[in-house]
Write a structure and sequence with these properties.
Blueprint (H helix, E strand, L loop, with lengths): L3 E8 L2 H12 L2 E4 L1 H4 L3 E5 L10 E5 L15 E6 L3 H10 L3 E9 L3 E7 L5 E7 L5
Parallel strand pairs: 1-4, 5-8
Antiparallel strand pairs: 1-5, 2-3, 3-4, 6-7, 7-8
């Protein structure tokens, strides 16, 4: 069974969004831009000994209308997995659609995005230091 492990907030102005969430919730950040290949700041949402998950604020992509392959406009919940391909097959068999296909975050993980049966976007993330 997968649990939520990560959230992403998509922002037109990443620096402005980081400043906002730091001021409102006290979040701190790590620059993960090199992993993502775009402005991407890891969120530490609170102490590790308290309930909750960490996430990221990232650059919102522009250009396409809603649907498969379209940029996200909002927040995304990412589910952890130990077998990306198995869970991909389960998602598709249950009526989910690929929004953005599986891709390597080099030296970190495999990541992809899906649409559920209601059109909501969610991510799937498998840690793998050999991802390339």
């Amino acid at each position: 069974m997968s649990r939520p492990i990560h959230f992403e907030i998509h922002a037109a102005d990443v620096e402005r969004a980081c400043t906002f969430y730091a001021a409102v919730f006290g979040w701190t950040y790590q620059d993960w831009t090199d992993f993502a290949g775009m402005p991407y700041f890891g969120v530490e949402s609170g102490p590790e000994d308290q309930p909750g998950i960490n996430g990221a604020i990232m650059q919102r992509m522009r250009g396409l209308e809603a649907g498969p392959g379209a940029p996200v406009n909002g927040a995304v919940l990412t589910m952890g997995t130990d077998d990306y391909d198995r869970d991909h097959a389960t998602i598709v068999a249950a009526g989910g659609q690929v929004a953005l296909p599986k891709a390597a975050l080099p030296g970190m993980a495999w990541q992809g995005y899906y649409l559920d049966t209601e059109g909501n976007v969610f991510g799937l993330h498998q840690p793998d230091p050999h991802a390339a």
